[in-house]
Amino acid sequence: MSEAPIIEIRGLRKTYHVGRVDVEALRGVDLDVARGEFVSIVGPSGSGKSTLFHIVGGLTPATSGGVRIGGREVGAMSDAARTRLRKTTVSFVFQKFNLLPNLTAADNIELARFLAGKNHGADPHFQDVLKLLGIADRLRHKPSELSGGEQQRVAIARAVVNHPAILLADEPTGNLDSVNSRTVLELLRDLNERLGQTILMITHNPEAAAYGHRLVHMHDGRIVATPPPT
User: Fold this and answer.
1) Distance between CA atoms of 15 and 21, rounded to whole angstroms?
2) d(Cα 211, Cα 23) in Å, to the nearest integer?
3) Disulfide check for 25: which of 14, 68, 181, 219 has CB 3.0–4.6 Å away?
4) Domain 7-225 superfamily per CATH
């Protein structure tokens, strides 16, 4: 019997009320993501990609339908449980690096461990991550002393330091040049292939999307094309 998907999305709808106008951002989305899969979600601006991302991560409630993470319904969780989900199970990488400017790279990463209630100390998994990301010699630098590509690598390290089951990446190369974009995408692929990290990546860039195992196309709040998990 095959393992249940780590992400199960069924009939997901989201309507925003803008004055007297209802805007349907999602119009009945169904999607499964297998554990250890790297899925790229592509589509034009306004297709619903970011709304889907925020609902899966427990940042925004759905209007109807549901999202199950590891068999647990996200919409049925308390606020405290959703906060715990974001600290331990689902982690984020954004287009903007969102590093705290007054902290070193090491402290930005360690803060994620502290917020998740984990003790400071040696972590073989983290050492593997540092080797993959190539930032071990940049940990004492503050964000202003790092290049854009280095800052994004620190942001990725911060996101995966607590062994999250799922990494949600929203346009992770949007602020990077082509060279740093390829580096970051290759690092995400390495995290997936070498460490088994499940990744759901949103992008408008076809070249970036090609790094995933599977492409999911969205348009006008619907999934219009997706192959099954391999």
Assistant:
1) 10
2) 32
3) 14
4) P-loop containing nucleotide triphosphate hydrolases (3.40.50.300)
